[in-house]
Design brief:
Blueprint (H helix, E strand, L loop, with lengths): L4 H9 L4 E6 L4 E5 H17 L7 E5 L4 H12 L3 E5 L5 H11 L3 E4 L6 E3 L23 H6 L2 E6 L9 E5 H15 L6 E4 L8 H9 L3 E4 L5 H10 L4 E4 L1 H8 L11 E4 L6 H11 L4 E6 L3 E5 L13 E2 L4 E5 L16 E6 L6 E2 L4 E2 L9 E9 L5 E6 L3 E4 L2 E4 H8 L5 E11 L3 E10 L8 H9 L10 E4 L14
Parallel strand pairs: 1-10, 3-4, 3-5, 9-10, 9-11, 11-12, 12-13, 25-26
Antiparallel strand pairs: 1-2, 5-6, 7-8, 8-18, 13-14, 14-15, 16-17, 17-20, 18-19, 20-21, 22-23, 24-25
Helix pairs in contact: 1-2, 2-3, 6-7, 8-9, 9-10
């Protein structure tokens, strides 16, 4: 079944029920489900007439908003594989993206969403063996189209080469149903949307529309207009990053957020952000673990107030377990200093990696999907994230994670951003080194003061041996730290 078909039952049952509500600066434009589907069908027909064929990868470049949603749904309805591209990417970056995704066509807002054909894509008739270092990158176009592909998005590439993750219509529907067992979105909900659509679309926009909810689209991410819009339109759920919640918590007005659920995703939720938000609005942030290859398998709803930085408990459809270095399951509750790799089995896992062509069946064995994240379960069965395996530092046999040290450094008033990594040491194996971006409102942080600050919260072996003040930290295309 095409994902868009699942929206039609709402258009038939409640044609005037709002699908989208757009902030127009003090007033709102509402688009009902029937009207949205009419626009989608008209645009899908135009795309077919312009030559978009089933299974072709179509890049979408548009600003977040109703036109993005309408065109994304139209690409899916026409049988194309949606490939969202950040609208702020320059021409050179878009060219690289088109090459990496092996796009068949563009659909760009700047070109009135007309289909722009690209040169034919070279294909291969066979898959590349996983782990092969000699095989040339290739795509099995016949196998790709046989999947009934719907969505292609690239991993952030924080610790390795960016991989193109393919989801079929069937896998998307599976993961939407599995995620909504925890989110419980329905027609009564009005979801305040603050994330970039080029990076977040499936277990978010598609989920809300499949569930018959109304998506609230603010004009900006600034606290004052967002709060005014949310209050005016009676938002019930918000889906945003810690950065957005940080901005909202700094608002000094008496504006309230009438939410039943505030989901924090896209990056780790820091304790100070969670505490400030709860103090300002009177309810907690629920952190969610979102993974491109998996969906949303873990959500912190039950213990958001008492354990704000925890990832939460696995949703009913998923088996989430910890793998030790020998490949065995960690049975007993752990602790921050006894972690395992987070592995996940369940519905909606990805179909394949694009290039080199690697079907997920060749990767998802008994372990399920190995995330590369190190975590631990507490005695209540709540999952906590320790850090990425790639970010583990081994100093004289004592192992810890960069993220733990970074969270301490970020609490220093002179530190705006930081990154901690390992440097090889002839005697100790590895030592921690920190890059610091100073808060522009103050003086550059003093090394001795930073050391004292870290020692108050960390054992001595976790304290960075070197601090480097830099102008900026390298980031990926999605804004995450480049590791």
């Amino acid at each position: 079944m095409n994902v868009v078909d699942t929206l039609r039952r709402h258009a038939e049952a409640r044609p005037e029920h709002p699908a989208l509500c757009v902030d127009r600066g003090g007033s709102s434009e509402t688009i009902g489900y029937a009207a949205l589907l009419e626009r989608v069908d008209a645009r899908a027909a135009a795309l077919r007439d312009e030559g978009l064929s089933r299974g072709e990868r179509c890049g979408l470049v548009a600003r977040p908003g109703p036109a993005f949603i309408e065109t994304a749904l139209a690409i899916l309805e026409a049988g194309g594989c949606l490939v969202p591209v950040p609208d702020d990417a320059g021409d050179e970056a878009r060219t690289r993206f088109a090459t990496q995704a092996k796009l068949h066509a563009w659909c760009r807002e700047s070109e009135a969403f007309r289909l722009e054909r690209l040169p034919e894509v070279e294909s291969s008739s066979s898959a590349v063996e996983p782990g092969s270092s000699e095989a040339e990158p290739s795509i099995d176009e016949a196998a790709f189209r046989a999947l009934d592909p719907a969505y292609l998005r690239f991993t952030s590439g924080t610790t390795s080469t960016r991989k193109g993750v393919i989801l079929s219509h069937a896998r998307i529907l599976e993961r939407l149903d599995a995620a909504n067992a925890g989110l419980e979105i329905g027609p009564q909900d009005r979801v305040l949307w603050l994330l970039p659509m080029a990076h977040h679309f499936v277990v978010s926009i598609l989920l809300y529309l499949r569930s018959g909810a109304t998506v609230l689209l603010p004009q900006s991410a600034l606290a004052k207009p967002v709060l005014a819009f949310a209050g005016r339109e009676r938002a019930t759920v918000s889906y945003a990053s810690p950065y957005h919640y940080h901005l909202l918590s700094k608002d000094a007005s008496d504006a309230r957020l009438p939410l039943r659920l505030a989901v924090s995703t896209a990056e780790g939720l820091r304790a100070e952000v969670a505490e400030r938000f709860q103090a300002r609005f009177g309810f907690p942030l629920s952190q969610a673990l979102g993974i491109i290859e998996v969906g949303l398998p873990v959500l912190n709803r039950d213990e958001a107030a008492t354990k704000p930085t925890a990832l939460g408990k696995p949703l009913p459809a998923y088996d989430v377990w910890l793998r030790d270095d020998e490949g065995k399951r960690i049975q007993a509750p752990g602790a921050p200093d006894r972690t395992g790799e987070v592995c996940i089995r369940g519905p909606g896992l990805f179909d394949a990696y694009l290039d080199p062509w690697t079907p997920s069946a060749s990767l998802l064995g008994e372990d399920g999907f190995r995330t590369g994240d190190q975590g631990w379960f507490d005695a209540d069965g709540t999952l906590h994230l320790a850090g990425r395996r790639h970010n583990r530092i081994n100093m004289a046999g004592m192992k810890f994670f960069s993220e733990e040290v970074e969270s301490v450094l970020l609490a220093h008033p002179a530190v705006q951003e930081c990154r901690v990594f390992a440097r090889t040491h002839p005697q100790l194996g590895e030592i921690p080194v920190a890059e610091i971006v100073a808060d522009p409102a103050g003086d550059a942080p003093d090394r001795a003061d930073l050391t004292r600050h870290c020692r108050r919260s960390l054992p001595s072996y976790k304290v960075p041996r070197e601090f480097r003040v830099v102008d900026a930290l390298a980031r990926t295309a999605t804004g995450k730290l480049q590791r």
